[in-house]
């Protein structure tokens, strides 16, 4: 959790530094991971580089999952680049690619085995697509799907809202 909070703080700091950029976006989202089979929350940003290309850092935290005596937590940090194939007043469609870091932690406690915990971090690649559905100038609901390739393979489906910061 400390690492998640530190990562979230770094994302916010990056966003503050980049506020001077045109069409800078920041937002929040709900996510679902098929491997962990849990929903979570996340924060995202878009920082323009050139026409149709943005850097898109984001983080996601999956709600803890408990099965019997085992509790499982997971979060991810992503550094993506989005390329907008379509970006107009009614639709923004983009492809995404980037790096992923996934951190998982398991705790168990029972009378037979005892108690213990373990954690692991994995690096992977993101490949996916997304779409923005602009409502007005500054309010952009969006949906996104990506596959994380690596030791922590999973499909991640997300939806949320981004806000233009001019």
From TrEMBL:
<keyword id="KW-0732">Signal</keyword>
<dbReference type="Pfam" id="PF13505">
    <property type="entry name" value="OMP_b-brl"/>
</dbReference>
<protein>
    <submittedName>
        <fullName>Outer membrane protein beta-barrel domain-containing protein</fullName>
    </submittedName>
</protein>
<feature type="domain" description="Outer membrane protein beta-barrel">
    <location>
        <begin position="32"/>
        <end position="163"/>
    </location>
</feature>
<dbReference type="InterPro" id="IPR011250">
    <property type="entry name" value="OMP/PagP_B-barrel"/>
</dbReference>
<dbReference type="InterPro" id="IPR027385">
    <property type="entry name" value="Beta-barrel_OMP"/>
</dbReference>
<feature type="signal peptide">
    <location>
        <begin position="1"/>
        <end position="20"/>
    </location>
</feature>
